[in-house]
């Protein structure tokens, strides 16, 4: 059940987070393989990026890649969260008193995150390529011309075979190692620490909320450099339909 609930929760959250993911992807691809100051700046910040996307691609432009993104989050997090919770429930991550052992939690978080990243890698690549597609006047990075998830799978498989669907997987697994270990380990320790205070002991939902925020902050900080590399690996071209970002 932990595998199912973890996947469904992440899939539902992706509907609300996908617009921000689109903006993040566009900003990360901006200036790809260009020297500083030698490329056009289409997206100045997250608010300006949102304005530019809506202006040129409409409101639906903010939800590009939603289909594969939802499936990717479902697959990746069902494996990641389900595996971690199974290890925790069976006492592999705690001491004799039931307290989380940071080293065990950190290692398990990293491995579970890498496993989830591996299984979700093809969908992550397709999501990235769909999100990067834009009107010619604001296009950044390689423009693959994808029309949908199934078309992308067929095209990648026919051109590069099964291995092509996992291109860039290594970068994504490193990204997941950094992000997942930081998130789950900091979440578990924060939750235990906060539970020692009467307010958080009385309101466990509040405890989980604050611990989740702390975990998310650690995840973002630790994962960001690897996320940038991962996005660029997934979106790199194969010598056709190249669109310069300047």
TrEMBL record:
Membrane topology according to the record = Multi-pass membrane protein
Record's GO cellular component terms: mitochondrial inner membrane
Keyword Cell membrane in annotation: no
Tell me one Pfam family matched here.
Answer: Mito_carr
| UniProt entry tagged with the keyword Mitochondrion | yes
Subcellular localization is given as: Mitochondrion inner membrane
Solcar repeats span 1-90, 100-193
Domain of life, per the record?
Eukaryota
Which keywords accompany this UniProt record? Membrane, Mitochondrion, Mitochondrion inner membrane, Repeat, Transmembrane, Transmembrane helix, Transport
* Membrane-spanning segments: 101-126
> Which family does the similarity line name?
Belongs to the mitochondrial carrier (TC 2.A.29) family.
Q: Please give the name of this protein.
A: Mitochondrial carrier protein
- Species name for this entry? Oryctes borbonicus
